[in-house]
Design brief:
By secondary structure, the chain is α/β, with parallel strands linked by helices. It folds into three domains: about 130 residues, Rossmann fold (3-Layer(aba) Sandwich), CATH 3.40.50.10800; about 100 residues, 3-Layer(aba) Sandwich (Rossmann fold); about 80 residues, Rossmann fold (3-Layer(aba) Sandwich), CATH 3.40.50.10800. About 45% of the residues lie in helices and about 15% in strands. The protein has 15 helices and 14 strands. α11 links the parallel β11 and β12. α2 runs parallel beside α14 and α5 packs across α15. The longest helix is centred in the first third of the chain and has 21 residues. The chain is globular, with a radius of gyration of 21 Å. The two termini are about 20 Å apart. About 45% of the residues are buried.
Length: about 350
Amino acid sequence: MTLQQLNRTPTSVEEIYREMKAKLHDIVPDVELRIKAELAYEIHQLKKERNAVILGHNYMEPALYHSIPDFVGDSLQLSRLAAETDKDVIVFCGVEFMAETAKILNPTKTVLIPSDKAGCSLASSITAEDVRALKARFPGVPVVTYVNTYADVKAESDICCTSSNAAAVVNSLDSDTVIFIPDEYLARNVAQETGKRIIFPSRLPNPDAIQPGSFDIIGWHGRCEVHEQFTIEDIHSVRQQFPDVVILAHPECSPEVVAASDFSGSTSAMIRFVRETQAPRFLLLTECSMGDNIAAELPDMEMLRLCSVRCPHMNQITMEETRDALRYLRYQIEVPEDIRVRALAAVERMLAIG
């Protein structure tokens, strides 16, 4: 469930149904599996006709995740794959900024997103105008932009990062001070990991008095509407009932939640940790579909459920919408060329960091 090529060439609806039932019988009702198997078979046929590749993010709901993607992984892994594909059409089962990144890397290919409602609260928290204002206020300070942003914001940046390489990106820059946008919690966690100080200028009583170089990281106020919901109280409650639980938190969670957890990392880092660690049970503090996907992939692992937190944007990506995206080639992602070229430079610098 780190980046995987799933190599599916199903010959019938029944074959898909059997494969899904083997993995998802304890997670998805049988009647739903039968319906989804019919949809999956239709999608595979359309994929062949369109010479398409389907990329599935780790947050996709289980029936979709385990039936139609050619590759599954986190945003960095899928971005790398998007840069290498030889297919004519890329269908990105993820949110809009992910599909935009695929288009930035593949300007001549058709990139589709199954739903035009699959946005992101974090990406919407900052605009290109906001970045230009920060650069004007802190001239010469390099801008590190989390990949969970739209293309015009990336275009104003020096380098992008993901949750898995954010600290490495910050450390790679030859600068005492960096602007790190837009995730407030990720910036705080990176500051702690790298031993840097951090400010959020708009919270200061006299922000104009802050000079470049006074602090190591200049942050922003964006948050993921999913990860900000996890609390210290959640962790304490679970540990009281299950003292031997190993808790994994995504770096978009608050620093307090990350500090109280046993491990923090990207979605793929979490998956590797679960695979490699001999613990009796696990709890993942991230989008809840990923816990279901790991439970299906690793049935001998006990995954605790603290899952009323589903990303409303990821939830827009359904098998029906994916089928119709391929059927009608709809919801095509377009990025203006001047923005794409500048965003590409920031994305390629990110990919070079690894």
